[in-house]
Amino acid sequence: MIKLPKALTVKQKKEIQDLYFSFVINIDIEKFRSIDSRIDKQIKSLCNSKLAWQREFILYIEGMHNYVEDIIRDECVICGQSESYVIAAVYYFITMEDVIPDWNLSDGYLDDAFVVNLCLKKIEKRHSNKINQLVNNLKSRV
pTM score, two decimals? Predict the structure, then answer.
């Protein structure tokens, strides 16, 4: 879980959840493939952030992205809605449809990090454990 540097308002949390859950309902592997080519640029833009929480957040995005790539390659099987939650979280990161615009340097990724935390709470424990394992592997390389 990512420790957010400041609290979101109740209104912001509701807006973020509504948007995220609309992505969960409408997401599919093809939508993920359409963003796959753009995600590396987004990840690289935050890797050298001076803010520790943003560096932590980007490791989770990268771990989730790697996890979905494993799913696509059939190296990993997710049952039920877990797949949709993970893909939608990565999609939320890459899309311009944000509650807090990403161009806002100090707060722009707070909503994205909130979505990652929400996703980790919603998916089955074994899937969040796998994502946490991928994140720990990424941390050891840094």
Answer: 0.88
